[in-house]
Every structure is written in structure tokens, then in C-alpha cells.
Fold this sequence. Notes:
- The chain has helices at residues 30-57, 63-96.
- It is mainly alpha-helical.
Amino acid sequence: xxxxxxxxxxxLPAPDPVRLPSASRPAGSFAxxxxxxxxxxxxxxxxxxxxxxxxxxxxxxxxHTTALAVQRAELAFDLxxxxxxxxxxxYQEIMRMQM
Length: 99
């Protein structure tokens, strides 16, 4: 015999809003944001290079850690490249507009 579901089921709690790391910082100029993004991508690349060097020399770096660092650097670069392409595309679209 099935058990009936009570009609007074408490509502689910509201989910917490997603907070992005940059949402807590005050917005800077476009040049500052761009320079910060370039620095972060460079840091990921340098970290991946350092991890690969440590793995190849046998300084205690594990293969999966090295692979994750390299993948993180590739994804960061790809994301930055796609964002750059969108900015260039938007600029080109604005330049084609008739005044």
C-alpha cells in the first residue's frame, strides 16, 4: 500500500547566489582588468612550466598534478583567447556602424 504524501511539505531553502571572485572587488578601468587577466594567464603558464620541470627532474612532482597544472594553463589561455576574439569582434562591429 503506497504511503500518501502530506500536503504540508516544507519549502526548500533558497539557493545561495553564486559569487564570482571579481564580484567582491570594485571594478577598475578596462586596462586594469585586461592587465590583471593577462597576468593571471601568464601565472598559470609559469606554474605549468614549473610543474613540468619539477616532474622531469624528479623533484617530487606527481604526474597527475603536472597534468592538472598543464590543463589549467591551457584552459585559461583558451578562455582568454575566446574573450579577446569577442572583444575584437565587438570592436569590428562598432567600426562598421554607420553614423
